[in-house]
Amino acid sequence: MSRLEEIADDELWALAVHEAGHFLVVTELRIPSEPHIKRKADGAYEGELAWEHFDGTPDERSAVAWAGAMAEAMTGARSPGISAPFPLSNRVPLAKANLTDWCAVMLYRFHYGKQQGYLSYGDQILVCKGSDVFKTARTAFKILSANVDRLFTLAERLYHNTHAAERLMIKTSSLLAVRVVVDN
Question: Which residue has the higher pLDDT, 137 or 82?
Answer without folding.
Answer: 137
